[in-house]
Amino acid sequence: IIGYSDERRLGDKIYSWISPKDEQTNSKTTWQIALKKKFDDSFMMRMTGGTYYRLLNMYEIAGDGASIVPAPAPKYSGVRFPEPEEGKQFDISAIWNGKALGADNSTTLTYFWRDSDNMLQLQRYGKDYWCYMNDVRGTVNGVELQSSFNWNKFDLDLQATYMKADAQKRNSATVGGYNYIDVHPTYQPKWEGNMRLTYRPTEPFAIFTEVHYTGAYYTSNAPKNGTGAYDADAAGGEVDDLLVFNRIAPLKSSIK
Length: 256
Prior knowledge:
Helix content is 5%, strand content 48%. It has 256 residues and is mainly beta. Strands 3, 4, 5, 6, 7, 8, 9, 10, 11 and 12 form a 10-stranded antiparallel β-sheet that branches. A hairpin with a 3-residue loop joins strand 7 and strand 8. It is elongated, with a radius of gyration of 24 Å.
């Protein structure tokens, strides 16, 4: 990673740790394995697993040129770019293609798991600037179902996901904030589903109606306290205020 800073910013005492050019080298060996077994013309299973290493994008390295800047190293001794995110992942799927309910059917049932470290968090670091920090880690596992039914003039598409996520967060922008604490993952519902029914009177036209369901999720990282419950005060409100219960969207129909 090589970062260049505008000379006009270098004379600003607020960003005194930023130099005209900064470099950082990262490397990692990752591996992936994939297996597939076809039992017959209708059914097969597939499995993938391995490690991953997500490199940083431009905003995570250099900021946005305004309120997001590279994070200062301890004692402002140079610039410390965030580390790339890394982790392990695994999934296994059962795939069916055949006939069901008088229709051509394609169904996939997948179990997935991921363990991530060095996840980036945008933190307020100073009076008027923010920095990306490697302040989040966590695991997620769940099950996903996708199924499509195709009749002569009707199609039915079903999707459902159950996901259990556990996250830990620290705040390395504050003194004493380096210890990880258990928090709620934000905007990660346990349950989510979608159903779409399509009618095709003729080949060029399709009319469909769709229902989408989103389970409860948190909009703020509410940490656990000593009793194991989630501390609402640290999240800025009551626990109920952090939950979103707007579940089933109205039916909507479209013509295309």
